[in-house]
Design a protein that fits this description.
Helix content is 74%, strand content 0%. With 337 residues, it is mostly helical. The protein is elongated and about 75 Å long. It comes from Parastrongyloides trichosuri.
């Protein structure tokens, strides 16, 4: 009888059911995934078929992209736990190829999105290994500015964000949460150093990569990460983030303003902050975003305690601008600085 690799059945299913939200199709897909992953787990003497992994990844992406009514069935399905075991075995190998490594991280990002950490099934030692590998992978991927793969950066950043969310939920015991926090902190510190180096060198990088790194740092700081980061690195990172924020104010105001929300709770601020706030407020007013005045007042209220130095010229411009806006609260705050 002719041997048929499991990915052939997966590919056939995907072609027949593409875009379908039918519950029966979902069950068939999950059954095929379970059968395939069981076979791959039985293959202990050699690496799993790369085409099978690609087919599994493609179907998991479909599950994520379709608004499933029976999401709980998906979240807790045995096939996802099997995929996690396959990936753990792969990433524990000392000499796997780049192709295997990258598809593993892509699958993990999809699993986090689909089922949080249910796919881990309590294997927290693997989660600790994964968090350490994320920093290594980011250093490798982002090291060559001219050849960065956007999808790879997105996958690693999605995993880091997924781990941060699990720590935030408080479902992990203290020891595991502490170990993971340390690894994640190292990832974020590297990204802070990297984005500062890009800024200093005026390097041109893919816009999507810059935005993903920006968003991940912002998310980490928003949940209080600024309190545990090295203060010098934090100030270095905030400087280029301010420039990115200003570039996005017209294109994506919510993304631009996310830095404003972070600055209001950062323990230290770079010297460029006052100039940034002035420019952001001016642009925000032009775009009819009235909340920028309230944001500015909130930040400036304790600004002197968090910024060692601020440009006198920017302060004078801010005072003139506050007067032109005729906002009593803002005038009172800036006149006291």
């Amino acid at each position: 009888m002719e041997f048929r690799c499991p990915h052939e059945a997966l590919n056939s299913f995907q072609l027949l059911s593409i875009g379908s939200q039918d519950e029966e199709n979902t069950k068939i897909g999950l059954t095929l995934l379970e059968e395939t992953t069981k076979k791959l787990l039985e293959q202990t003497s050699y690496l799993p078929c790369i085409e099978c992994l690609k087919s599994i990844e493609s179907i998991i992406k479909d599950f994520n992209n379709i608004n499933q009514q029976n999401n709980e069935i998906l979240r807790n399905h045995e096939s996802l736990k099997n995929i996690g075991k396959i990936i753990e075995r792969l990433l524990s190998c000392p000499n796997i190829t780049l192709e295997y490594s990258m598809i593993s991280f892509s699958l993990i990002a999809q699993l986090f999105y689909l089922s949080d950490i249910l796919w881990l099934n309590g294997r927290y030692n693997f989660l600790k290994l994964l968090s350490s590998l994320c920093e290594v992978k980011l250093r490798v991927i982002l090291g060559d500015y001219k050849n960065i793969c956007t999808n790879h950066v997105n996958d690693i950043c999605d995993i880091v964000e997924g781990i941060i969310k699990e720590i935030e939920k408080g479902n992990l015991n203290d020891t595991i949460a502490t170990d993971l926090s340390f690894s994640i902190q190292k990832c974020i510190l590297f990204l802070c150093e990297w984005i500062y180096a890009i800024h200093k060198q005026n390097a041109i990088i893919i816009e999507d990569v810059e935005v993903r790194v920006y968003s991940l740092i912002i998310y980490f700081l928003y949940i209080g990460g600024g309190e545990i980061l090295d203060k010098t690195n934090l100030k270095y990172a905030l400087t280029p983030l301010q420039m990115i924020s200003l570039r996005y104010i017209k294109k994506d105001y919510a993304k631009a303003r996310s830095l404003i929300c972070v600055i209001s709770c950062c323990p230290v601020l770079p010297d460029s902050t006052l100039e940034y706030l002035l420019n952001f407020t001016k642009e925000g007013i032009k775009l009819n975003h009235k909340e920028v005045i309230k944001d500015l007042c909130s930040i400036l209220d304790d600004f002197k305690d968090r910024c060692d130095y601020y440009d006198v010229k920017s302060l004078q411009e801010l005072k003139k601008y506050a007067k032109s806006l005729n906002d009593c609260q803002l005038q009172e705050i800036v006149n006291s600085m």
